[in-house]
């Protein structure tokens, strides 16, 4: 059977690339404009990479592929990521 | 070859199993010694990587069950699982595995959060929520907590003995079980009776199989809870 | 320097006869990058579009009336499982290209659901690639790409697009869904061409 999980499952793969936890960031979908936490994206993990889709329109918002010595991050489906940071 | 951990970079660490504890006939808790463990928030998880003698490797995510700094994972053995039968039945104290984390900063509860908390668990989805209950106790927090836990039968319920004790000893913690084999699935009426009124603006955490989580989250929103306050974590599979 | 767990074997086995880095499986794992499209056979269509935009379309009735082959092939997934001796029925891709006027060297396979993957046209000709509609004696289930999937077993299995709905012929190579995210444009398992640059 196939089942999706959610964006919480992206935490390890994204934390390898980013210095902050991106699953708590707010992401806006290019397809429909809906915004929500990365953790709430629908994630297809039984695949050659992690494919995160918008829970509203199911367009691909973010993809991560991990090779042995490289990673690829595709954010074409993302308008912007809003990342909370400590005040300067 | 020694790996030097660059501060802030997520790296695989060698973890040693120090204890195993049966929770139910099909679930075990592993206590791990992880040198350099930076501590974690309740609700965070780790990635575990296993490598077979022929080089085949498999990676899975597990929620941390314990309050920081103790590292405990509860593994539910899945009938068709690949990693869980090893972790849930074969691994023994002294064995090593690779682990990275903690990761995840969204499905987390901090003892400084002031809102009352509603935890809704489907099956082994209780694991990260148990970390919240244990963290609350360890911090001496008085934040009111309510847990609604759906499990197939009492024999399938994780942490039942500890929860019974904590309901008695931890002031402000209420626990309600739904035995789905006899009582059926979680209902709006159960969440209405054993949750908090939406007016209290509780922080709601829902964890379980995808179908369970989506049904429970929809019920909470239908009851008037703000979708913004309903955090969910799905681990796939069927209820 | 991974830590080896002597008691852990997973569900796969190393096998010296497999392509490098592959492990043998006896089940048939289902990989998906999104929701499974449910396409009734009587609504299924397959369109070949040339570089000039000329399009030819076949229906399920057209497909199943064409001369088919039964083939037994090994398949190799880039996620490291291989499955030996799988049996399929399909129509050779070349049968759909016979009357097509093209100077293209590449093709993009398109799927219901939006998936794409690129292949050299030469790799779709002769007895190398099939438009498959039966697996192991039965209709192909939606989880495995039914009603119709591409079958190109000499390349990693992500090239064998599930839920096939068309081929677009191209003068220049252009990366598909996984190829834009790091995977190899060709994907020969025997040369272990998993990622770009391999």
TrEMBL record, chain A:
Source taxon at top rank: Bacteria
Pfam families in the record: DUF6510
Organism whose genome encodes this protein: Spirilliplanes yamanashiensis
Protein name per the record: Hydrogenase maturation nickel metallochaperone HypA
UniProtKB/TrEMBL annotation, chain B:
Highest taxon above the source species: Bacteria
Record-level Gene Ontology MF annotations: 2 iron, 2 sulfur cluster binding; oxidoreductase activity
Cofactor(s) recorded in Swiss-Prot or TrEMBL: FAD
Annotated InterPro entries: Cbr1-like_FAD-bd_dom, FAD-bd_FR_type, FNR_nucleotide-bd, MRET, OxRdtase_FAD/NAD-bd, Riboflavin_synthase-like_b-brl
Sequence ranges assigned to domain FAD-binding FR-type in this UniProt record: 10-109
Keywords on record: 2Fe-2S, Iron, Iron-sulfur, Metal-binding
Pfam short name (any one): NAD_binding_1
Record's protein name: Oxidoreductase
UniProtKB/TrEMBL annotation, chain C:
Organism superkingdom: Bacteria
Signal sequence range: none
Database matches in Pfam families: Oxidored_molyb
Domain Oxidoreductase molybdopterin-binding: 34-178
Entry-linked Gene3D superfamilies: Oxidoreductase, molybdopterin-binding domain
Stored PANTHER family: OXIDOREDUCTASE MOLYBDOPTERIN-BINDING DOMAIN-CONTAINING PROTEIN, PROTEIN-METHIONINE-SULFOXIDE REDUCTASE
Protein name: Molybdopterin-binding protein
Organism expressing this protein natively: Spirilliplanes yamanashiensis
């Amino acid at each position: 059977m196939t089942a999706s999980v959610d964006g919480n499952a992206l935490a390890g793969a994204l934390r390898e690339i980013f210095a902050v936890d991106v699953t708590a960031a707010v992401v806006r979908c290019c397809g429909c404009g809906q915004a929500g936490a990365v953790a709430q994206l629908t994630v297809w993990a039984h695949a050659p990479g992690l494919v995160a889709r918008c829970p509203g329109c199911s367009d691909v918002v973010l993809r991560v592929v991990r090779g042995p010595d490289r990673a690829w991050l595709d954010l074409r489906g993302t308008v912007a990521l809003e990342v909370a940071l400590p005040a300067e | 070859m020694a790996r030097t951990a660059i501060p802030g970079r997520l790296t695989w660490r060698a973890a040693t199993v120090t204890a195993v504890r049966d929770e139910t006939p099909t679930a075990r808790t592993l206590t791990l010694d992880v040198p350099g463990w930076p501590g974690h928030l309740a609700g965070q998880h780790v990635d575990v990587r296993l490598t077979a003698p022929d080089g085949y490797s498999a990676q899975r995510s597990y929620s941390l069950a314990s309050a920081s700094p103790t590292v405990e994972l509860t593994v539910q053995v899945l009938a068709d699982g690949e990693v869980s039968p090893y972790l849930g039945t074969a691994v023994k104290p002294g064995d090593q595995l690779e682990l990275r984390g903690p990761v995840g900063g969204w499905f987390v509860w901090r003892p400084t959060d002031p809102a009352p908390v509603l935890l809704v668990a489907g099956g082994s989805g209780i694991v990260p929520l148990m970390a919240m209950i244990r963290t609350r106790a360890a911090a001496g927090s008085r934040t009111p907590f309510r847990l609604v836990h759906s499990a197939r039968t009492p024999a399938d319920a994780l942490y039942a003995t500890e929860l019974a004790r904590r309901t008695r000893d931890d002031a402000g913690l209420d626990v309600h079980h739904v035995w789905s084999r006899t009582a059926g699935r979680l209902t709006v009426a159960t969440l209405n009776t054993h949750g908090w009124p939406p007016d209290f603006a509780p922080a709601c955490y829902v964890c379980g199989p995808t179908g369970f989580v989506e049904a429970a989250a929809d019920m909470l929103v239908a009851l008037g809870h703000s979708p913004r306050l309903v955090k969910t974590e799905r681990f796939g599979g069927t209820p | 320097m991974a830590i080896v767990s002597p008691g852990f074997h997973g569900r796969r086995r190393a096998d010296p006869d497999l392509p490098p880095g592959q492990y043998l499986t006896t089940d048939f794992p289902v990989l998906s990058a999104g929701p499974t499209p449910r396409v009734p056979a009587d609504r299924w269509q397959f369109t070949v579009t040339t570089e000039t935009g000329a399009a030819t379309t076949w229906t399920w009735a057209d497909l199943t009336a064409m001369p088919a082959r039964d083939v037994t092939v090994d398949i190799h997934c880039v996620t490291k499982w291989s499955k030996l001796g799988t049996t399929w029925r399909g129509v050779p891709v070349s049968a759909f290209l016979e009357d097509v006027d093209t100077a293209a060297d590449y093709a993009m396979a398109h799927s219901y659901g939006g998936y794409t993957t690129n292949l050299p046209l030469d790799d779709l000709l002769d007895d190398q690639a099939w438009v498959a509609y039966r697996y192991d004696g039965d209709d192909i289930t939606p989880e495995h790409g039914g009603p119709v999937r591409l079958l190109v077993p000499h390349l990693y299995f992500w090239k064998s697009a599930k839920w096939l709905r068309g081929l677009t012929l191209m003068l220049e190579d252009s990366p598909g869904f996984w190829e834009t995210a790091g995977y190899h444009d060709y994907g020969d398992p025997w040369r272990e061409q998993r990622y770009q640059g391999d």
